[in-house]
Each structure stands twice: as C-alpha cells, then as structure tokens.
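agent: user wants the structure for Tripartite ATP-independent transporter solute receptor, DctP family from Halomonas cupida. delegating to structure tool.
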Amino acid sequence: MKTMKRLMGLALLLLSASAHAATSNPFDWSSVPETDDQITMRLAHSLNMEWSSQTVAIKRFAELVAIYSNNRIKPEIFPGSQLGGEKEMLQQARQGVIQVTIPATNNMAQLAPSLNVLLLPYLTQSTEESNFLLDEITPVLVPRVIEEAGVRIVGWENTGWRNFFYNAPDPIRSPADLAPLRMRVPPNAIMLGTYRAWGASPTPIAWNELYSALQQGVVEGGDNPITDILGMKFDEVISRVTRLHYTILTHPIVVSEHWFQSLPQDLQEVVLRAGRETTEYVRWWQPLDEARWWMMAEEAGLQVDFIEDESEWRERAQSTWPDYYDLIGEDGADLVKVATDIVEKYDSKNNQ
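agent: tool returned. relaying tokens verbatim.
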C-alpha cells in the first residue's frame, strides 16, 4: 500500500510538472516560418510512440536547438523508422543525410564497438551510478565513436533497467529458473553471452517481430524497461515481470560529425548545450514517468517479482567480461579499467 501511494504521488507530480512545462514553453518551434538562410536539422528515430522517453528526448533536443539558435536551425523530426532501422539511420548520419538520431546503445555498438563497454553486465548498480559513469566516460568515448561511426555523442537518454518479462507458472528468482525459458535477446554479443552465462538459451528476434513471437509461443519472454513492456502491449501476451539490475537501456543522442563540423562555432555550442540540457531534463523526467508505468503494471494485473539477492547473477555475468575486451577494441581491457575506475570513484564519494 505504501508503495502504491508513493508511486501515485510521483505520477501526480509528473502530470503537474508536464502541464507546467506545456504552458511555459517560449514558443512552438515547429510552426516558426522558414527563412532563406535556415539550416535544416533532420532528426530520425525508430519509435512512433508518444509514451517513449526516446520521443521525449528527441523532441526536447529539437526544441532547445531551435530556441537557442534563434531559429537559425530548423528541426524536422522523422519518427517510426521512416528513414530505416537504427543501423541504417546511423549510416545516414555518418554520411550527413540526416543530422541527428538516437539509437539504442546495444544497436549502435555494432558500428561503434567502444560502446560495448557500457553493456558489460553489472557494470553499475544504480541509476545514479550509471549517470555518473556516462558523464565521466563520454569525453573518452566521443573521439573514439567519431572515428568508428562518424557521429558525435552530445547527450544521453535513459529508458530504465531491463527487467525480465515472460510467461511461466513460477517467477524467475535464480539463473536456474531461466533454463527452461526461451528468451528474446537483442543481437548483441555481450547480451547474448550474459544469458548463456546464466545457463539460458537466448533467441535473437527483431524488435518489431517480438509481440507475435510471444503470442505464438516462439519465445516465452525477454527483457526491457517497464515502459517498453507496457507501451508495446506485451502485457497482453505475458503474465510476469521480474525486476533486476543487470543493465540499463540507454540511447545516445548523436549528431553527424560531418554536419557538426560544417556549423559555425556558435551553433556548435548550441548543439552541445542542447545535448547537455536534454540529458538533464530526461534524468529528471524518466524516474517520475517510470513510477507511473509500474503503477500501470499493477493495474494491468501483471505479477511483479523482485530478485532480492543478485549476487549469483552478478558473479556469473561478470565472469564473462574478459571475453569481450577484444570486441570493445584493441585497448578494450584499458577502456574497461577506465569505466571501473569511474564507478569506484562514484562509490568512494558516496560511501564515505
């Protein structure tokens, strides 16, 4: 009951804050008339759902760029994979065909292997720790990702911790409980390897095919933040969710480096400022919004379980880290050391 009241309070706070933000918006950037010298900024992403924090982030970024550039940059947003999948959109950004996209980190790692360092299971233990890691390691990653993928990271969106969602008579509490279940996992080597370390048989399935795969029993479940689980209506075809903290789903806000370098310095600063402020905004907004979705999960009748002790999960998953050093890069072990040093720095500051 206390949990429900707390979630209700957070949800009401979010609704109030959203209403205030809507009434205090300086102007509607999307309706400002074009001028001859406007620079077009095409933003493309994979989702077409207003509920998604991806959508919130890309709209906020577009709005801030328009405002801070005094409309010298005109945003045009293409949602719902209109311009291709996330890999295709990244390739278009490299070429300068589009200027901004916001892919999942695990998908972008196919073109920017350095980002695999952020996918190591149990690298961080809390949202705050994860945010600190992103802030500290991004300056290290930016030049590497520019070289690898031709895009520049200017901000981050955090969708939340990936939770197991599935159909089963009993809850998942230990790795042994995963063995009989066919679980959908994104086609990323580290994420697939993590499931194998737990003794599971992961099944790569395209995101847009997952609902029908669950409905037809091709797989029994997968893992995603609660917003995705409910937003994609998986609650119609699964019965349980188990909460754990092995990895957070993040999306870097990336801009075409070719386009970025073509901008005058003052507009480069506008883009960087918009990225920083979008990151801050999403970090304020996301936990409030997520609380609302957990409340909706209870209302939808999903059985929500918790793994009280994740030590076995953590030990098995972390034992695979050395297997992925080469995947991260020639200096993969060194980059992992940078990441773990940052996490230790956070822990020492907050555990004194």
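agent: one observation worth passing along. The chain has two domains: 2-159+251-297, 163-246+300-339.
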